[in-house]
Design brief:
Helix content of chain A: 25-40%
Largest interface: A-B, 27 and 30 residues
Low-confidence stretches of chain B: 313-319, 602-608
Number of domains of chain B: 4
Radius of gyration of chain A: 16 Å
Mean pLDDT of chain A: 93
Order of helices and strands of chain A: HEEEHEHEHHEE
Shape of chain A: globular
Structural class of chain A: alpha+beta
Oligomer: heterodimer
Low-confidence stretches of chain A: none
CATH superfamily of chain A: Electron Transport, Fmn-binding Protein, Chain A
Largest sheet of chain A: 6 strands, antiparallel, barrel
Largest sheet of chain B: 8 strands, mixed
Helix content of chain B: 40-55%
Strand content of chain A: 35-45%
Number of helices of chain A: 5
Number of strands of chain B: 21
Mean pLDDT of chain B: 85
Number of domains of chain A: 1
CATH class of chain A: Mainly Beta
Number of strands of chain A: 7
Strand content of chain B: 15-25%
């Protein structure tokens, strides 16, 4: 129970400190596809990530906006099994344009100042994931679902 | 890599590698003090084993199943049991094994040894781990010595050691263990000596027994005790023991035997020998420069120092170590406890319960009822105290047997031993058998079923009516001892009708299977060891049975109190209305005496700022407590009425099953409990019926709602909540 009470704080801290997430999209014929993306959180319910448009993931997202994003804090050591926190966001990705895109870029470059040129390029798309649910795993096998409230 | 050091090769820089105890022995040997020959196994050997086999992370997963504060000590037992089994079943990596075997053979050449713990940081001036880690006396042969080195390593993770380190705030993740393999000195007299008495700085204390000092150290043999003046060496007092038993070396390990009459009348030490021990412990104190606690033995007139460590600054009562030490009990100690519980406490408790049943609260005046409530309250307090002081400690008999079983058979399932405890005559099983018989009659007799459904009480089936009568007389009302009692037979008939709709439930083992398993266990031993194994099994079964029965008896006393309180509330309802139902026993008695008294109002709850997300448990990890996997709708027990609503195939979810609730278990497909541990009643009964069970899920009854689809993985201790079927 105490674990659940701390969970929001731990999730929030991890989303702020981690830089990369594994993005899953759906390709032609329903084939799954996964890759690393840099991401920036926007509160509990939304995330930003960027990709250039000539990529498989962009092509996949144009056809099917549903995504899963895995963020975790593993260190690549054995102790990860009992120490690491892993959170999977389930939701839909929306490409931002106009004022939304400008505001999103401001948040994104606060976290990734070295990616400013990349994210501002006309060939780069900025997506916002509307998270329907987080599935958060602690201690190897404890699973808590976190639903962002509107 | 050099993982062994003979005593004479230990340098000051090796202190951390060999642990405080091993280092002290090496220094004494160099000084020419009389210590037995020994080989030190350094902490690197432990680390090599932990890393080389990968069991380090397996241990970390065990002790991090939950945050430490939410782990009950019974769950610590379980984690420690599983960890110990990991050590038992994980062989030494080849290179390490060969290196150790060579050094052991060269050092001992078939001589029997003592295998002792020597954890770095174990004994300091502020904390003493004396007795928390294991030592094994009289181990013979390289293979056996290698096995016991692993058992000493495993004792770093015993529940007592885990709890003690948690209390001291030590980081358990970095703990390590060195081992002393010491030639055995089969002394004829042995004991301990404190150069400074923990309570009185001007005095020294010496304790001695005939034979080896294992009995003194674990409390099963009472020592003679001398108190000496430190400055003059004069003996101030000698308190003789009732010398009845002594510990001697057996073929392997040790035995407690009756003391021959000639020795029983003689103190283990003559006055000049008391002075020899006294002078030696002062020499050791002077050598180390601080007060010492020394274990010694005398063989054929020569004194040997077995180990020495600093006397802890706070003295033996400075922390909770004494309590943690009670987590390890010897067979002797438990046999005596069993006699006391069976011969004295259970009969007295049953007699109190019977006496209470003979007093009808409805027939008393208000004043008489108030007095009766208070009497029953104080009886319940008394018996609850006895329960904690004597009945719970007896549960260690189950552990003792479990450890003996796992050591002998090294099973893949560390709880396999519980199958051998099954089928013992437990009251809750007898009650369930009678319920099953009544349900069987309803199943076979449609006319009886029909009449019960229509609210008829008796008169259709004479045998059924007789069983109902027997049931009420023997077991009282269903649900007594939960929160309150139920009156009348409606609850019973409702339950029986639902039981009759489901197929009959069987217990897992019959007597023949249990007998075969008993023989498989005993056949691992021969001679005296077999006799001892049979005694340990017998003790294990007795503790297992009592663990269940004592709660039923306590439940009767609790039921009697509740019956009197209910009668009081019924009377008070006339003046207090609904408020009467919330009164405690004390308030009820008070209100009966003083008609003007009114209860205090409830405190309103405050509301905080709402969070930005909603949490829902999807999968929870607890302790595996009954193997198998089950799925079904949850039946969450938050009040006594919920239990009687249970239907066949449901997953029973509750805070804690007490034995008075176990009548509902045969209907359940699976069990989930907040309270953790293998030896709790829910787990015991679940195992009897082969029902998957997971315990130690914090907040189980709040996180899961009645009707949620739940799966219970009793192999791994995982509960998955699918959610409401219609959401």
């Amino acid at each position: 129970m105490e674990e659940m009470e701390n969970l929001r704080n731990r999730l929030d801290a991890m989303l702020r400190s981690q830089r990369l997430a594994v993005l899953s999209t759906t390709g032609a014929g329903g084939a799954p596809y996964g890759n690393l993306v840099s991401f920036a959180p926007l509160g509990a319910g939304r995330l930003l990530f960027a990709t250039t448009r000539e990529t498989r993931k962009y092509e996949n997202l144009r056809a099917d906006a549903r995504v899963a994003l895995l963020v975790d804090n593993r260190r690549g050591v054995e102790a990860d099994f009992h120490e690491a926190l892993a959170a999977t966001a389930l939701g839909r990705a929306v490409e931002l344009t106009g004022k939304d895109r400008e505001e999103g870029i401001a948040v994104y470059i606060t976290k990734f100042p070295f990616l400013e040129e990349f994210v501002r390029a006309p060939s780069c798309a900025l997506f916002r994931v509307e998270v329907e649910r987080w599935i958060v795993v602690t201690r190897f096998q404890n699973v808590i679902e976190v639903t962002p409230l509107p | 890599m050099n993982v062994t050091l003979p005593l004479d090769r230990v340098e000051p820089r090796d202190r951390e590698r060999v642990g405080g105890k091993g280092y002290a022995l090496a220094r004494m040997a160099r000084q020419g003090l009389p210590v037995p020959a020994a080989l030190l196994i350094t902490a690197e050997a432990y680390r090599h084993y932990i890393r080389g086999t990968g069991i380090g992370e397996a241990i970390a997963l065990e002790i991090n199943r939950k945050i430490a504060g939410e782990m009950r000590w019974e769950e610590m037992w379980d984690a420690a049991l599983r960890i110990r089994n990991l050590f038992l079943r994980t062989p030494l990596p080849g290179g390490l094994r060969d290196g150790l075997a060579r050094a052991i053979e060269e050092s001992f050449r078939g001589v029997a040894v003592v295998v002792r713990s020597s954890a770095p940081g174990e004994d300091s001036a502020t904390a003493s781990f004396a007795g928390l880690h294991e030592s094994f006396v009289n181990v013979r042969g390289t293979e056996a010595i290698l096995d016991h080195i692993r058992l000493v390593w495993a004792s770093l993770w015993s529940d007592a050691a885990l709890l003690y380190r948690r209390e001291l705030g030590l980081d358990i993740a970095t703990s390590t263990m060195a081992v002393i393999v010491q030639e055995i000195v089969a002394g004829d007299r042995s004991g301990v000596a404190f150069s400074v008495s923990p309570g009185e700085p001007s005095r020294s204390v010496i304790e001695a027994v005939h034979g080896l000092n294992q009995g003194l150290v674990d409390g099963s043999v009472e020592p003679d005790r001398w108190v000496l003046d430190r400055s003059s060496g004069r003996i101030l007092t000698h308190r003789p023991a009732t010398r009845e038993k002594a510990v001697y070396a057996a073929d392997s390990g040790v035995d407690v035997r009756p003391l021959p009459a000639a020795l029983a009348g003689t103190p283990p030490l003559a006055p000049e020998e008391v002075h020899l021990v006294f002078r030696t412990v002062l020499d050791v104190e002077q050598f180390f420069g601080s007060p010492q606690d020394m274990e010694w033995t005398i063989r054929s007139g020569s004194l040997y120092i077995l180990q020495a460590r600093p006397v802890t600054a706070g003295g033996p009562d400075g922390d909770q170590r004494a309590w943690y030490l009670t987590l390890r009990r010897s067979l002797e100690n438990l046999k005596a406890l069993r006699q006391e519980v069976e011969g004295r406490w259970i009969p007295a408790m049953t007699s109190d319960a019977r006496a209470l049943a003979g007093v009808d609260p409805a027939a008393l005046s208000d004043e008489g009822l108030a007095a009766e409530i208070e009497r029953r309250r104080s009886l319940l307090d008394k018996w609850t105290g006895v329960y904690y002081a004597h009945f719970i400690p007896l549960a260690h008999g189950i552990r003792l047997f479990g450890q003996a079983y796992n050591d002998a058979l090294r099973p893949a399932d560390p709880y396999e031993f519980m199958d051998l405890l099954g089928g013992t005559e437990m009251i809750s099983l007898e009650r369930n058998r009678l319920l099953a018989r009544m349900a069987g009659r309803i199943r076979e007799n449609p006319q009886l079923a029909q009449s019960l459904r229509q609210g008829a009480r008796a008169g259709v089936d004479g045998a059924f009516d007789a069983d109902v009568e027997t049931f009420s007389r023997t077991f009282g009302d269903l649900g007594c001892g939960t929160d309150r009692c139920f009156s009348g037979h409606d609850a019973l008939f409702g339950l029986l009708l639902r039981m009759a709709e489901a197929p009959p439930v069987r217990e897992r083992f019959d007597a023949g299977e249990i007998e075969a398993r008993r023989e498989a266990f005993l056949s691992c031993f021969a001679g005296e060891a077999r006799q001892r194994a049979a005694e340990i099994l017998d003790l294990g079964r007795a503790s297992y049975r009592l663990r269940d029965n004592d709660n039923i008896h306590l439940g009767k006393i609790e039921g009697a109190l509740l019956a009197a309180v209910d009668e009081g509330k019924r009377r008070l309802g006339r003046t207090l209305g609904g408020a009467a139902s919330a009164l405690s026993a004390e308030e009820t008695a008070r209100a009966l005496r003083d008609p003007a008294w009114r209860p205090q109002g409830a405190i309103p709850q405050r509301e905080g700022k709402g969070p930005d997300s909603a949490l829902r448990a999807r999968q929870l990890r607890g302790q595996p407590a009954g193997p198998g996997v089950a799925r079904g709708p949850a039946r969450v027990i938050t009040g006594p009425g919920d239990l009687l609503e249970i239907r066949a195939g449901e997953i029973l979810v509750c805070d804690a099953i007490d034995p008075n609730m176990t009548f509902a278990v045969p209907l359940a497909a699976g069990i989930v409990e907040r309270r953790g541990g293998m030896l709790i009643h829910g787990a015991i009964i679940a195992r009897e019926y082969g029902i998957p069970c997971v315990t130690g899920i914090p907040g189980a009854a709040e996180l899961i709602r009645t009707g949620d689809r739940v799966s219970v993985d009793g192999w791994l201790g995982i509960v998955t909540i699918e959610g409401q079927p219609s959401l």
